[in-house]
Amino acid sequence: MPILRLTLLRHLGWAVAGLVGLYLLTSNVEPYRDLQIATIAYTAIAAAGLTLLTGTSGQISLGQGAFMAVGAYTTAVLLEHRPEWPLGLVVLLSTVAAAVVGALVGAAAARLRGPYLAGATLAFAVGLPALADYRGLRHVLGGANGLVVAQPPPPLSLGETFPLERWQSWIAGCCLVITLFLLANLQRSRMGRNMRAVRDDEIAAALSGVDVARTQVLAFVVSATCGGLAGALLAVVNGLAAPGAFPLALSLSLLTAVILGGLGSLAGAVYGATVLVLVPGWLNNLAESLGVARNVYANLPLALYGVVLVVVMIGFPHGLQGGVRRVARWLRPDGSARSRDGNASRADVTRVTTVPGTESDSVLRGGPDGD
Amino acid sequence: MLDVEGLQTRYGAVRALDGVDLSVRSGSITAVLGANGAGKTTLLRTVGGLVRPRAGTVRLAGRDVSGWRPEDLVPLGLGHVPEGRGIVTELTVEENLRLGGLWRRDRRGMRRGLEEVYGLFPPLASRRTQAAETLSGGERQMLALGRALLGRPTLLLLDEPSLGLAPRVAAQIMGVLRRLRDDTGLTVVLVEQNARSALSIADHGVVLSLGRVVADEPADVLAADERLRHAYLGF
Amino acid sequence: MRFVNLTLAGVASGSIYAAVALALVLIWRSTRIVNFAQGGMMMVTTFVAYTVGQHGGSYWLALAAALGAGAVLGALAELLVRPVEGGPPLNAVIVTLGLLVFLQAVAGMIFGGTPRSYSPAFSIGGYLIGDTRLLFSPADLFTLLAVVTVTVALAVLFRRTATGLRMRAAAFAPEVARLLGVRVSRTLTLGWALAAVVGALAGVLVAPSIFVGPNTFDAMLVFGFTAAVIGGLDSPSGAVVGGLLLGLALSYVSGYAGSDVVTLGALVVLVVVLMIRPAGLFARRGGRRV
């Protein structure tokens, strides 16, 4: 895919900075924090894939959790039955498995739009994890209790006392940086433009020669791949792959993270994932110090996500990332509409999520509309 | 009956109405004329409450109703047959008619009203239980008009009633409007592309161009003014 | 015999799906939104009924409480959704999902995650015909009759009353309806409230078999949505037929392939219908006008 060399170099720069930052961060905190970093990393991978699918490509998907389940279970099964295979290969195969499922789902979903697509992916998210408990597959997939995953230890070259958590955070962090690099390039490439074109005006895109179905399916495959990778890492980091880890709430939480960060924004996906992982911990601490009942604080994050989804959608159609940009533009009135970090421009985000009447970007929306 | 002062309506940056002043006497038929895009439909939509004006006032029977919503204007006696007629094709003919009279919450009045409308438009009577979808253009116009009449309006706004109708049918509709004015004192404001037909029944004519009033004369004066006719009305 | 039993069971469960589908269709018709919070709303109203029952109320009192709670909840939900009505579908989807998540979380806070059992009004033991026991009980019969009654009542409401006419007009042509004096936003609120009441009924009817917990009604949303899609989101009669067809199909899946894959079975049905006839079996020609 031909992309501007400048953009590629810029992304490479960010990637290197990210890796350096990751090393510095993880080396200077306790293993408990490393575990959090690892969790944030794989959550961000899943969120990044979802933001590409729902934001850049405009396809509402409630099934990201199911793709994560595919990745997690593939990893668990492979590590159990082929313990001699290197971790990299196992993770790669899990990712491929999720990609294949993504292709199937994408093909089926290519003709669906809006609430129909949401409903179908919802059914997928609710139905797939139940497969683990299916009579015929129970012995392979571990049933309701799930499969225990043998967590590969750090290589000896790093020293005998190298913490497992730090190793896992390195793996997950590297995967995140690589994923973001690839996704950023994809967003800036012709395929990325095609996705946005199809999202904004399918008929116009088709008339311009874009293969709509292929674009939609590709977006699904990419998103599912990210989900699968995230799931594989989840299995490795948590040491377990169980149906209970992939409820509908997971897919909805990822959606919340993506909405918070701004649809189509990779940086936003990372912010959103960070919030998603850290908030339950903060709330736990707060609740314990206040002596609140377990039921309450266990569900508080979800209640918060629900409120966030509703409030953000009604009040900030562009997500908080967009909200930050709006403030920045207000402070610098000469600012252009296009963002500078290669992610979905504000114009793109406007098309997907603008509630009519909140923003009159009449040039972008194709002329003045009657009231 | 209807007084419009300094009415301004914008669509984004476009000034559809740019300071319109207009007065309609009770019991008269006023034709609003002009080229495409002159603002005729916008005027009706603004008066009818579908669009909020940027500036200016609308008074209905002396009361300031600027910016009121359409559903609040209906109880004040406003009837509006929109562009395209607005027939609800999923409903039957009678259901469409009933819809017009629902706001009165008067069952006996509804029955009487229905009989009157069927008397006025016999083709509707023979089709009362058919889906409105099956009606021809002329019948749809009758239906839209009948539906508006069931609301017992004192001021009736009509947007291009003769659009798409054969001349004979259009003339029929115009005839009905004139009869209504004569028999019941109904005030009518009528937007028309077909200026000649409209002026034939109107008492008064208003010509719009680019959102402004360029002529506001009794109908016969307007029809006689050749320069005006050529410039704005196409005949 | 197995087949007969599965068929009867399918009709019983199908009537529940039909009710949920009806609720979804009512909302879709009036506001062009799929109410993804439907399962959550059903769950909340059923919890209300459960609480009434726990405090000594009879089954019928609990049911009435659920229906009342449904009306209130539906009206509130419509208020919430109003800012995103008429906008891009994504916004409405997300708002209803947010509501779903919120409702589930609040229920979890109050009642905890463990599903509670719910006692039905009638016996759940199957009818006895000679020596064979049918997979159809008095409770199932009650369910079927309740749903049929509600369907007929709704049909009468829509076809024969002024309110129903207003609601239909507001659904088909809201701008025209406003020109005729119909207070469209009020009818929208009524539509949502009505839908929530139907959902509440379905929730109480199905509670004995799925137990009452924050997440036990997720599958109901999937089944209801699938049934609604089968019949066509625009068609109430389609919703009922769709529900029954789905109930039968899933009953056979459950009987011959195992009950664990029932939700996946619904997914397959959903995808197949969306591929073949996306507008549903009872699709009407023509789009929606304003």
Q: Would you write up a description of this structure?
A:
The complex is a heterotrimer of chains A (371), B (235) and C (290). With 371 residues, chain A is mostly helical. Helix content of chain A is 70%, strand content 1%. In chain A, strands 1-2 form a two-stranded antiparallel ribbon. In chain A, α1 runs antiparallel to α7. In chain B, the strands form two sheets. Chain B has a six-stranded mixed β-sheet with strand order 6-7-8-3-9-10, with helices on both faces. In chain B, β1 (2-11) and β2 form a beta hairpin. The chains are: A mainly alpha (371), B alpha/beta (235), C mainly alpha (290). Chains in contact: A-B, A-C, B-C. At the A-C interface, α5, α11 and α13 of A face α4, α9 and α11 of C.
Overview features:
heterotrimer; A: 371 residues; mainly alpha; two-stranded antiparallel sheet; 15 helices; 70% helix; C: 290 residues; 11 helices; disordered C terminus
Structural class of chain C: mainly alpha
Into which percent range does the helicity of residues of chain C fall? over 70%
Count of individual beta strands of chain C: 2
Q: Biggest sheet of chain A, strands in spatial order?
A: 1-2
- Spatial shape of chain C: globular
Strand content of chain A: under 5%
SS-derived structural category of chain A:
mainly alpha
Uncertain parts of chain A: 333-371
- Biggest β-sheet strands, sense, barrel of chain A: 2 strands, antiparallel
Radius of gyration of chain A: 21 Å
- First and last CA, distance of chain A: 42 Å
Q: What sort of overall outline of chain A do the alpha carbons produce when their principal axes are compared?
A: globular
Oligomer: heterotrimer
Rounded to the nearest angstrom, the radius of gyration of chain C is 19 Å
Q: Give the strand line-up of the largest sheet of chain C.
A: 1-2
Helix and strand sequence of chain A:
HHHHHHEHHHHEHHHHH
List the helices and strands and how they pair.
The complex is a heterotrimer of chains A (371), B (235) and C (290).
Chain A: H1 5-27, H2 31-56, H3 64-81, H4 87-109, H5 114-127, H6 138-141, E1 147-148, H7 164-188, H8 190-200, H9 202-207, H10 212-238, E2 240-241, H11 248-261, H12 266-290, H13 294-315, H14 319-331, H15 346-353
Antiparallel strand pairs in A: 1-2
Helix pairs in contact in A: 1-7, 2-7, 2-10, 2-11, 2-12, 3-4, 3-10, 4-10, 7-8, 7-10, 8-10, 11-12, 11-13, 11-14, 12-13
Chain B: E1 2-11, E2 14-24, E3 29-34, H1 40-47, E4 55-60, E5 63-64, H2 70-73, E6 78-81, H3 93-101, H4 107-120, H5 122-126, H6 137-149, E7 155-159, H7 167-184, E8 187-191, H8 195-201, E9 204-209, E10 212-218, H9 219-224, H10 226-233
Parallel strand pairs in B: 3-8, 3-9, 6-7, 7-8
Antiparallel strand pairs in B: 1-2, 1-4, 4-5, 9-10
Helix pairs in contact in B: 3-4, 3-6
Chain C: H1 2-31, H2 38-54, H3 59-81, H4 89-111, E1 128-129, E2 132-133, H5 138-160, H6 162-172, H7 174-179, H8 184-210, H9 218-231, H10 236-257, H11 262-276
